[in-house]
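FAQ: What does a multi-protein file look like?

Like this. Sequence, then tokens, then the next protein.
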Amino acid sequence: MPVEIFELTVKANVKENADCGTTADRSGASGSAAGSGTAAAGNQAIIQECVTQVLEILRRNQER
């Protein structure tokens, strides 16, 4: 028997910190500008993918 979820709650704590240990910082890049630029681009890509998936789910639900 399938389980239908009517509501999903997601909580997240996000800290933006210059010494958070991004991949660019660990690979030897100096300065926080290099790491934060890469992190910002990565965050933007994740947000865009999430929005795309949510819109696809909403579109499928509207078709029913």
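And here is the next protein:
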Amino acid sequence: MGETPKAEESLTRVEAGGLTFRLSTWGPPDAPAVLMLGHVPDMLFSLEPLAAALSQSTTPRRVLLPERIDLGPDRHFRAIANDIAKLIEALDCGRVDIAGIGFGGTVAIYLAIAEPQLVRALALVDAPLPNIHSIDADLSRRLAEAYAYVADFLDPGFEAKVASGNDGLLSQFWERASWWPEQEEGYRTEFAKPEYIARVAAAYRSNFTLVETRETFTAEDEQRLSPFGHRVDAVRAGEPRKLVSPAFTPEPIVLDVPSLHYFSCPQLLPPELSQYEFLSRFVTAPRIELGNEGSLGAHISDPEGIAAVITQFFADAAERAPLAVEGEPEPVREARDSRYIVEQYDKK
């Protein structure tokens, strides 16, 4: 990777809803805004190359990247979405495009559902959709198995294990990633900070619950449920079968805001989650892009490539629903978005 263009030297401080957000910024101040929401929690240095690449697209954008989004006392993704809505209102830049990474994308989905007048389009990278576990019993079971590794973070002893030097619970998914050797030092520095580990625990405990069973994992389970072909601490033959379920309300989502869904490693989750026929039951005309990574994190390994995909999606959205001119009456802006919503994207 080449040298990443730096953000502006001073962070932008924005007071919103009693919280103080600190944002790094790239691109011309008067360009249309893109708000980036990182994973909860995330590391700013892992997001900066994508932010810089987005700002340097053929149509320059003003990229706003919060230092962190989990500032409030309630770490449920819906509560964080409410905080981000207040941030967008405080920025006073009108309807924005949002790029959401990981759980930052899940937050963005909640935001777009609750406050669609604030969001023009969503570009989601490796972002789990909330509430789809409620669709049927078989999918619920397979999702619980796919998220079994999350039991590590829900374990009451998680923080103590990491403090004792066992950061394998965190690094086990990244060690085979192509970008890990370059980023390892920065990640391990963050893993060593108690406040970062407390944020990890709070995020998972606020959004997932353990599903206790009286069974034990088998050797076949260990092989089948190990992401990317290697074992995780939570899934070991002979150990209690602890599965995980999202702590969301059971109603499926209905997302009408135009959305891009990029999956770095689609084999990690049940296959239908990255298929148009399935997603279009809950998401209006989703655009789907499939990566071929051996792990999550395509935005780290190939920020320019992911930026190109996102930029094209936002450009297509702009043709159908341009960012509203502030002087236009609200019904005009709503009509623009309505015309976009009924148009179908090409299947990717």
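Q: Is there any per-entry metadata?
A: Some entries carry free-text notes. For the entry above: Confidence is low (pLDDT under 50) at residues 324-348.
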